[in-house]
Write a structure and sequence with these properties.
The complex is a heterodimer of chains A (about 280) and B (about 375). Chain A contains 14 helices and no strands. Chain B is globular. The chains are: A mainly alpha (about 280), B mainly alpha (about 375). The interface between A and B is large, with 44 and 54 residues.
Chain lengths: ~280, ~375
């Protein structure tokens, strides 16, 4: 399996995969972990404990202004952030694969239009548009938010896929299939798609980084979904009630650290994969 | 063979023109074709993103006018509490919300193009949104300009040096440090700086753009105050930018260090110092100028968050303020200006590159 070799050979990919997996495992195990952290208490319930308690055995990360256990909040916030980032990453990968594929395979005028569109989205600052769109979406849910983010992070995936299709299109075995009069569909399914898997994975990792960046940007200024807690909102709320001047930075340092780990993990995965599948890059970095 | 990013970009552009403009535009010189294409793309991108943001706002469910009136009421900028039909009509006209969507769209663009008028703001009604963005613009421009130039300049030089000395332990140490730093969003960097340099260290102010006791002017006192307040926001962006530019420049330079022209330069007996500055650095900074334009959008996005954190009176902070109270005109004006800024700088870079980089040519 190609991914086994990748894991064995690329230190970057290994580190990134381990970091990302640990975050995902924490997210998946949120219920038992929550039980350990706060017992039966609803982590979002206000006034469960004393306010601004320092870290103790009962509250490993202390409590916040509303008497909520910070570890409990982190545990419910992390899976929300991960879900939105990966959902948006997956949605934009689908969109990016379609655009990149059509663009690279069809070529000509279709390609020039789609590539211009992709370049447009890469050049313009998208966060202002995301802010406007998110702020004006009614009942913003995780899914809607993921859609908004995906609408702006697909170019990352499209670019990766297009360049790969361009190179695959010229391979001798594709020429051979064309000569034997196979249809476009047969060539795409039989010859091209099987060779695309690693690049779809790279596109997914890059689109997820892009989405996660925008997600954090949106939530730290308090414009995320108001119905649920996520890591960005934890930071925004903590800053809102002045934890820095109170010297209680731990309340937002943990969410910040988790988000940095997420960026680092995803970026290492995508860099590791790029270097592995595109050996020309390996000698440079 | 030297292949650089800008060469390929322009060649591809040219190849497209060649394909679509056969015959009809045969009389134009390659340069003119390229210029026309590039300008066309500029106008198209600008128009496209502005149209998109216009419809984001106008196609929202519900009537925005009631929101505007209730906002004006809560801000005490609306004299009568009586929502009479006349009042509603007056404000509808005032905020450009009368007529069909098509008419609104046309008059919106006409007002921007002819009078640079985005309509009145809600944030400080009846001041026009244009006044608000013009007041905020210099702050954002200074912040982004200083941060981008510093980050790019230091990054390119450090990247070239670490590639040049790639076998030394110091270079390796710095490169690894940069690799770690490059994944931290500038906003988080700003948070750490805020904690350690402002609150704990007490070295620099934590919010605003200048001392509250001063009035904006070109006096020395005010300038010093503005620099002091701007240091933290700029530093946050610069640290991350230096790390990123360093890594990409290093990769670029390592890939050209084995080139024949460098071996030849060494063989001719040119001093290593000369080879570094005249041969290596030149090959590093020119392609990185093209990359600068592409990175600018991200910097502008990140800067919104940083301005928000430092309560800096720039466009980013204004945008979020406007979006929160649904001040459509001000928000649109801010977005328009930010996108315009990024696209125009990209245009300038693309047009100037062939003048400063002899390898890039306007080819038709």
């Amino acid at each position: 399996m190609v991914f086994v070799n990748l894991y064995r050979e690329s230190g970057k990919f290994r580190l990134g995969a381990v970091i990302t997996l640990i975050l995902i495992v924490i997210g998946v195990l949120r219920t038992p972990l929550l039980n350990l952290a706060v017992g039966d208490t609803d982590p979002m319930a206000v006034g469960s404990f004393g306010i601004f308690l320092d870290p103790t055995r009962d509250h490993l990360l202390g409590t916040d202004r509303f008497g909520r256990d910070v570890l409990g909040l982190v545990l419910i916030a992390l899976p929300v952030s991960l879900t939105v980032a990966f959902l948006a990453g997956a949605l934009s990968t689908v969109l990016g694969v379609v655009v990149g594929f059509v663009s690279g395979y069809k070529g000509g005028r279709v390609d020039s239009v789609l590539r211009t569109l992709t370049d447009m989205f890469i050049v313009i600052p998208t966060l202002p548009l995301i802010i406007i769109l998110a702020a004006n979406t009614r009942n913003l849910s995780s899914l809607k938010l993921a859609l908004v983010l995906a609408a702006f992070s697909w170019p990352f995936a499209a670019r990766v896929i297009r360049s790969q299709v361009l190179s695959l299109r010229e391979r001798p075995y594709v020429e051979l299939s064309k000569m034997t009069n196979l249809s476009d569909r047969e060539i795409i399914v039989g010859d091209i798609l099987p060779n695309m898997a690693p690049y779809v994975a790279i596109g997914f990792a890059q689109a997820s980084v892009g989405s996660a960046f925008a997600l954090v940007g949106l939530t730290v200024i308090g414009l995320g979904p108001s119905s649920q807690m996520d890591l960005g909102r934890m930071i925004s709320e903590a800053l809102g009630y002045g934890v820095i001047s109170l010297g209680k930075e731990l309340i937002f340092v943990v969410p910040v650290a988790l988000l940095i780990l997420l960026f680092l993990g995803l970026a290492l995965i995508s860099q590791g994969m790029e270097e592995f599948f595109n050996p020309r890059l390996r000698s440079q970095a | 063979m030297v292949t650089s990013t800008p060469t390929t970009t322009l060649d591809q552009e040219a190849e497209l023109t060649g394909g679509s403009g056969k015959g009809g535009r045969g009389a134009l010189s390659p340069t003119a074709t390229y210029l026309l294409r590039r300008l066309g793309l500029y106008v198209l991108t600008l128009w496209g993103s502005l149209t998109a943001s216009f419809f984001f706002f106008r196609l929202l469910p519900g009537d925005p006018i009631s929101g505007i009136i209730s906002q004006l009421q809560t801000r005490g900028q609306y004299s009568s509490l009586d929502n009479s039909q006349d009042m509603v009509e007056f404000y509808r006209k005032e905020f450009g919300l009368d007529g069909s969507l098509g008419q609104q769209y046309v008059s919106y663009f006409r007002n921007i193009l002819t009078q640079f008028d985005f309509g009145p703001s809600v944030l400080s009604y009846p001041s026009p949104a244009t006044d608000l963005i013009i007041r905020a613009l210099p702050w954002t421009f200074a912040l982004i300009g200083v941060a981008t130039l510093l980050g790019w300049g230091i990054g390119v030089v450090l990247g070239t040096l670490t590639a040049w000395k790639r076998n030394s332990r110091w270079a390796e140490l710095i490169t690894n440090g940069a690799l770690g730093l490059s994944h931290i969003p500038p906003y988080f960097m700003a948070l750490f700086l805020l904690i350690f340099l402002s609150y704990r260290g007490g070295l620099l102010p934590s919010r605003g753009a200048y001392d509250a006791g001063l009035d904006p002017s070109w006096s020395l006192e005010f300038m010093i105050s503005a620099i002091k307040y701007g240091t933290l926001p700029v530093l946050a962006t610069v640290i991350v930018a230096v790390a990123n530019w360093m890594i990409s420049t290093r990769a670029l330079v390592v890939s050209i260090l084995g080139e024949d022209f460098l071996t030849f330069a060494n063989a001719k007996g040119i001093t290593p110092r000369h080879v570094l500055t005249r041969y290596v650095l030149r090959n590093a900074w020119l392609p990185q100028i093209a990359a600068l334009g592409l990175a600018l959008g991200g910097v502008v996005s990140g800067n919104i968050l940083i301005e928000r954190l430092f309560v800096y009176p720039g466009l980013g902070n204004l945008l979020v303020d406007a979006v929160i109270i649904k001040d459509v005109n001000t928000a649109m004006a801010t977005v328009t200006l930010l996108i315009f800024m990024v696209l125009t700088i990209n245009l300038i870079i693309d047009l100037c590159l062939p003048l400063i980089d002899p390898r890039v040519k306007f080819t038709g």
